[in-house]
Amino acid sequence: MITMNSARDFTLQLNHTYPVKRERVFNAWTKSEQLEKWWGPEGFKTTIEEMNVEVNGNYKFHMHSPDGGTHVLTDQYKEIVPHEKLVFTWKWENRDVAFPSTTVTIDFLEKGDSTEVVVTHTDLPSEEAANNHNFGLTSSLEGSLKIYLEQK
């Protein structure tokens, strides 16, 4: 769901439930060797240059698209509640136009033996940016992450 807060402030919220324990899903987001195996839309391959999962720790991911392009995502972790919540800022480093730092909050909700992941991406600068992130994050949650969690 995309919500327009103002002409230059959009929020994207997505949720998906996985039939695995919350700790396993949280680790897929916070352990570099796991995140590298699934991060990004289907067809992308991600290499991690930096991933310091602690408050004010930096990260830098290189997302390699099937067409040969590379998208660099970088910024900082802001809040970490083990197995419950992850908050980080999100900035595209290699865009032609300046892309502002946005905020992503991920809630990991225990649902018996399953985990519901709620991703809230705020401060998106346009409807187009919200739609692009909707596509990428939906592909990641419903495709890449789901496939990764089913393999283990």
UniProtKB/TrEMBL annotation:
Which positions, given as ranges, span the membrane?
none
State the InterPro entries in the record: ASHA1/2-like_C (IPR013538), START-like_dom_sf (IPR023393)
Q: What are the Activator of Hsp90 ATPase homologue 1/2-like C-terminal domain coordinates in residue numbering?
A: 20-150
Alphabetical list of Gene3D superfamilies matching this protein: 3.30.530.20
Cross-referenced SUPFAM superfamilies, in alphabetical order?
Answer: Bet v1-like
Top-level lineage group: Bacteria
Q: What CDD domains does the annotation carry?
A: SRPBCC_CalC_Aha1-like
For this protein, the record's Pfam families field holds: AHSA1
Per the record, the similarity remark reads: Belongs to the AHA1 family.
Record protein name field: SRPBCC domain-containing protein
